[in-house]
Amino acid sequence: MIFIAQRSFLTVAVATILSFLFLPAVSAHLQKRHASRRDTSWSDAYTFLSTHNAIRVQHGASPLTWSYTLADAAQSWVNQCEFRATDGQLLDTSYGEIIEAGSGEVSIETAVASFVADEADYTDGSDVLNHFTQVVWKSTTELGCARSTACNGIFDTGGSQTLIVCLYNPPGNVIGEATNNVQA
């Protein structure tokens, strides 16, 4: 018994020493490889996705999948703390976008709820295209979002503000296609 316990201790000790030796190299590799992905946590990605999908299912749209390409592009915009449209400059392909800002810390759930607050402005067959129609657009399949709670100067109120950017692929809100893509 003593021999097994000593051997187990020795194995753990060697493994611990090796992890301390190699951990910095592995950590640096992972940080370099996933540098843009570490800004949006798994928890935030899940919250963005599940909140969107809960709304989409109520309107006959299939669930979205998470896109790291879209999330990385959204993060690059959020990092600039610019509360304006991206004008399609983030990616080489077209995408839909919703940009939201608020004073203080705004939760993901609150932001997505505000995206669809304009649902009442849309009726089936309407030409009104808005944030709500982008969120529930049936042909959209991918979502990528980012959030910063440390933006200053977006509003004149002082203090920190939250900026949230969500990008959608393929883009929704295509004129003439709402009847096939939006179920109010």
From TrEMBL:
Residues 43-176 form the SCP domain. SMART domains: SCP. InterPro entries: CAP_dom, CAP_sf, CRISP-related. Gene3D superfamilies: CAP. Signal peptide: none annotated. This is PR-1-like protein. It comes from Armillaria gallica.
